[in-house]
Write a structure and sequence with these properties.
The protein is mainly beta and 161 residues long. It has two helices and eleven strands, in the order βββββαββββββα. The structure holds zinc ion (ZN).
Length: 161
């Protein structure tokens, strides 16, 4: 796991999505997050809020079909699926959004009006043995096609953290 998840910042209760972002249908991947105004590099675009629990509670929530995200060895957030706009962010192997710290996502470069905001799902993959069932078709020059839990070991991803 990325060491940046070991943060002392207290997460907010609610998710927050920058008002310069709107949800639109993508051609292939369901809904996505798009810039309705230009967004400068280094802007916080999403803050993951939520209900933070320990591992035991997270396992129970997972069995109930809730969305579980891991932030640290014994820190998880649980949420009903599809409850928050923030979860519509799609994956790209060449994303324009990255983690600023444990709970905040920021733009890595300037984002134009109408451009989709994307993140690399490896940021939230905690199982090293996981191999994605879907094939990535993001079209980026560096598309990995199959996303695995070991991707964070790739030199180009290590550089980003
Ligand atoms: Zn890709």
């Amino acid at each position: 796991m990325f060491s940046l998840f070991k943060s002392k910042i207290k997460p907010p209760r609610e998710d927050w999505v920058n008002p310069k972002i709107e949800i639109c249908e993508t051609k292939k991947r369901g809904k996505g997050l798009f810039a309705s105004q230009p967004i400068n590099k280094g802007t916080v675009v999403i803050i993951w809020g939520g209900n933070y629990v320990n591992k035991k509670q997270a396992d129970i929530a997972k069995n109930r079909g809730m969305l579980v995200m891991q932030f640290d060895d014994n820190l998880f957030s649980i949420e009903d699926r599809g409850e928050s706009d923030a979860y519509f962010i799609n994956h790209s192997c060449n994303p324009n959004v990255w983690m600023k710290d444990a709970f905040r996502l920021e733009t890595m470069r300037d984002v134009k009006i109408g451009e989709e905001l994307t993140a690399d799902y490896i940021l939230w993959e905690t199982d090293e043995n996981k191999i994605s069932k879907w094939k990535c078709e993001c079209g980026a020059f560096n598309c990995r096609q199959v996303i695995t839990g070991k991707d964070y070991l790739l030199p180009e991803l290590q550089k980003k953290v």
